[in-house]
Amino acid sequence: MSGLRELKKRQTRENISHNATRLFLERGFDKVTIAEVAAASQVAKMTVTNYFPRKEDLALDLHEVFVAAPAAAVRGRERGESALAALRRAFGDAVARRDAVIGFSGLPFARMIAESPALVARLREFHEEREHLLARELARETGAAPEELTPRIAAAQLGGALRVLFEETMRRTLDGQDHDEIAAALADAGQAAFGLLEPSLGDYAVRR
């Protein structure tokens, strides 16, 4: 029975997210209310807020994956691989997949975000959250004390590179470039961005 309940919850969540995205793309994020999303999804307004406490998260439904991805890449790095190398490899894989988590969203979705100050602000919070999570992971992996600066500084550098690359994906999307054009540009941009960090972080948090 628990498996059936979980399936039902997942289906309800996906239904709400699908209808919310459709309405946001049709009319703009700021012009759609939670009540309208609930009506389109044929659920109560409280059901929507139970699954999505913040309206912004209806549009940015990959919040948990987005925030966790860099820390997960570091945690899963191979023997002899540094945190920087793991993130470089993970980014290259995401480019090859045209992954929405690194910004491959398509023009209508990118425009919806760019035109909403609330979504732009929420994305900024996502970047900050994942930087903090990455810092905690780096501290755990290197045995650093909670008050040590090195994991936080490393996370700020790595997170900053990822943020700039995400913004570059969005910029190119808004300029009308297709996924293949963006992927080709990002492959080079990723190598350049992570290469700049190599002198300072190339030997940091290497898995022994």
Automatic annotation (TrEMBL):
Asked if the Swiss-Prot or TrEMBL record annotates the protein with the keyword Ribonucleoprotein, the reply is: no
What InterPro entries does the annotation carry? Homeodomain-like_sf (IPR009057), HTH-type_TetR-like_transc_reg (IPR050109), HTH_TetR (IPR001647)
Q: Which GO terms describe its molecular function?
A: DNA-binding transcription factor activity; transcription cis-regulatory region binding
Please indicate which superkingdom the organism of origin belongs to: Bacteria
The reply on keyword Transcription is yes
The residue ranges of the HTH tetR-type domain are 10-70
Alphabetically sorted, this entry's keywords are:
DNA-binding, Transcription, Transcription regulation
Q: Which is a Pfam family this sequence falls into?
A: TetR_N
Where's DNA bound on this chain?
Answer: 33-52
Protein name per UniProt: HTH tetR-type domain-containing protein
Which organism was this protein described from? Actinomadura macrotermitis
